[in-house]
Write a structure and sequence with these properties.
The protein is about 65% helix and about 10% strand. The protein is built from 16 helices and 10 strands.
Length: about 450
């Protein structure tokens, strides 16, 4: 019964998110997080009702798996943050959605795969646990030294919070406890970090002197920057040195400034939580089925998305014949036609290699389609319509000062960057529209792939 409830919820959120993505090219966070929270709540209720930890375990495994896959695809720039966040709730739904699909892992291969994965995970857990305990102890020692010196009140409180979190996590690795208790232990440590100060992860640092001319955009200054002409409060540098401020500072004659070299606490805590998840979520056949289901879903999503892009290119070619002629030289047209004919002929005579030849053609077609990118997907967008996550394709320059470069938006414009750009537009009336790289709404292809999975 609960599987049908999860399926209904998944279809509902797919519909809502797809409509939002299609209309606005944006998926609101409340849709993604509400979906994930509802599914996790159902898994907890199911676990309590059945007196078994399995529903939480499998939902957690799916969540972690989809979070990692979505994060990788987001960092590679293949899709936006909204698509990656939606995948979190979908991943938590996987153990229930499996009931509506055929077996994805062949029976004869399941035992071999299970033993291989289990042995591999056991080795990884043993080695990783030793290393993470050593690193945690070393960082706790650094935090104790850090707390012995007088700091700002908030910095001291943050360092103390980090110390408590690491003590909790390290104790969880030392003691052999029930998976459910280990889950609660890790969740308590996560809750402390989640509700703590925004700059919690920046509280452990070293003070290092650095020459002004070698300063970088990512450097965090440890104090106010003062010269006869300039004064910038230290709070200006909490997120690094703004590009326009960096240029002004480099023009000064000040030789040395003190910067903070931050310890990567965020990465350390993330590794701790991932290892907690691996220790809690033992691998079995159902986990393998979930991995296969998610992989098949993603492949189908890219297939549907690829077909959609090809259709868009064909429509664009039909509507913009004159523009397309300018994109290709005469030799490129003949070369593309010759390769197409050659691959078709080879596929007819060498059927065994048809798949490889088809992939070669798709690769060449992809290279050709890149030529359409600037014509089809790079366009001007009014600043008022810009939303977080949009890929800006131009430097932001006001009165010959470079405030942001294209590289600053490689993962999409962030909320703070967008607000800064809007503030700059008030000083520069010409900054009313910005070149952005548009793309297809990817939630509808994902929805289509999910429907195909249910039908096939």
């Amino acid at each position: 019964m609960i599987s049908y409830v999860v399926l209904s919820i998944t279809l509902f959120f797919f519909t809502i998110a797809s409509l939002e993505d299609f209309k606005k090219k944006e998926i609101y966070d409340y849709i993604n997080f509400l979906y994930a929270i509802i599914i996790l709540s159902l898994a907890i209720i199911h676990s309590l009702y059945s007196h078994s930890f399995d529903p939480i375990k499998y939902a957690g495994f799916g969540l972690i798996l989809s979070f990692l896959m979505g994060g990788i695809l987001y960092l590679l720039g293949i899709w936006g943050g909204g698509d990656a966040k939606f995948l979190i709730g979908f991943g938590a739904s996987l153990p229930y959605l499996l009931e509506f699909s055929s077996t994805l892992v062949p029976a004869q291969a399941s035992n071999f795969l299970l033993n291989s994965v289990s042995n591999f995970m056991s080795i990884i857990i043993s080695i990783s646990t030793i290393y993470i305990i050593i690193i945690n102890c070393f960082v706790m020692f650094l935090l104790l030294l850090f707390l012995t010196k007088k700091r700002e009140r908030q910095v001291t409180l943050n360092a103390l919070t980090l110390l408590v979190i690491l003590i909790l996590l390290t104790m969880g690795f030392f003691f052999q406890v029930d998976p459910f208790l280990l889950f609660l232990w890790g969740f308590f440590a996560f809750a402390i970090s989640f509700f703590s100060d925004d700059y919690l992860m920046d509280s452990l640092y070293l003070r290092v002197k650095k020459k002004t001319k070698f300063l970088e955009n990512s450097d965090v200054l440890d104090s106010d920057f003062k010269t006869k002409e300039l004064f910038y409060s230290q709070s200006t540098f909490n997120e690094g040195i703004p590009r326009n401020v960096l240029e002004e500072i480099k023009k000064t004659n000040k030789q040395n400034v003190v910067v903070r070299k931050l310890f990567p606490m965020g990465m350390l805590l993330l590794l701790n939580f991932i290892l907690y998840g691996i220790k809690i979520l033992s691998i079995d056949i159902k986990n393998l089925e979930m991995m296969a289901f998610l992989l098949k879903f993603l492949l189908l999503s890219f297939l549907v998305g690829g077909v959609l892009i090809m259709c868009m290119i064909v429509i664009f070619v039909i509507r913009n014949t004159h523009k397309v002629k300018k994109l290709f030289s005469k030799n490129q047209k003949y070369l593309f036609f010759a390769i197409t004919v050659l691959l078709i002929v080879l596929s007819l005579f060498y059927t065994k290699y048809a798949l490889i030849l088809s992939l070669a053609y798709l690769y060449y077609f992809f290279k050709i389609s890149k030529l359409f990118e600037n014509s089809m997907f790079v366009l001007k967008k009014p600043l008022s319509s810009l939303v977080p996550g949009d890929w800006i394709m131009q430097d932001i320059v006001v009165k010959d000062k470079v405030y942001f470069k294209v590289e600053d938006f490689k993962l999409g414009v962030e909320e703070e960057q967008l607000q800064k750009i809007k503030d700059l537009s008030k000083k520069n009336p010409s900054l009313k529209s910005i070149l952005i790289k548009d793309g297809i709404a990817f939630l509808p292809p994902m929805f289509g792939a999910f429907i195909l999975l249910l039908i096939l």
